[in-house]
Description:
Elements: H1 5-40, H2 58-83, H3 90-118, H4 126-144, H5 153-158, H6 161-176, H7 186-230, H8 234-237, H9 241-253, H10 263-273, H11 278-296
Helix pairs in contact: 1-2, 1-4, 2-3, 2-4, 3-4, 3-7, 6-7, 7-10, 9-11, 10-11
Amino acid sequence: MKRHPISRIVLRNKVRSAFALILSVTIFIFVLASVVIGLLTTPSSITPERGSRVFMLFTVNSNLVAAAGAICVLPYAVDGLRNRWHRIPKWVDRLLYCGTLSVNMTLDFALLILLPRMGNVAVTGMNLGLHVVCPILTIILFLCIENSRILTYVDSLLSLIPYFLYATIYFTMVVALKKWRDIYGLVDRLGPIGAIAAMTFFALSLSAVLRIIHNYLSFKGSKRLSKDLLSIDNLQNHISLSDAIDRLASLYVNSSYEMVVPLDLISEMTHIYKESSFEEAVEEYVESFLKKAKGNV
């Protein structure tokens, strides 16, 4: 039996919520375990930044930002499983964007520069989780829980904040105060200005690529949502927006223990029908939901 379009939408969002839940918990655990391994590892000539000096590494700090973003997704993923609608707020999306860019820089730098230079040390022990596993999982989380939100150029600039903070500390300690060794060898090879220019260009490029992919997937998600909504019997039976909203309220009042207002769906419906404003449609949905909920008590 073919699923009703609204049921398909709800199921898809429930799957996204479960996926986000699993990934966010996995990323947080992997980062925590990897940092603990680094803290407990004895420093050596190849990896002197271990023990209490582990937080000198961009690798560690970038993964901590990613873990913070991932764990902030968790309550919204749980809410999505309970209420059948997955939606993360703008600030969580931005934090996850920051973490994804940072660990993407770590992943690329580790594979392209550190692995040829250091050998397997770059991808074993603490580095296995922080250079490979967590970055890949974070990128998947960021791109695969796409929603209808489109990231802007401002979001791209904000995603650079962790990089600029670390770069400021790094160049202060390495170049100005000479308290740290040149961990990544960029200052020795390119000079301070060359290193800053190269890494900033690298960060800007990666940020742009992530934003383009994210927005493409969000656009595809919106198109799929519109297609599902249009496949409701509205065109065949010429039902009104009010009838469609009433059906939507019926579905949610029967599948949730608390009030759920799927703003994305209602917004998309108003674009399709063009019968009412978004605000009027939301008011109509709330009124219908409350009326049906009262009848179920």
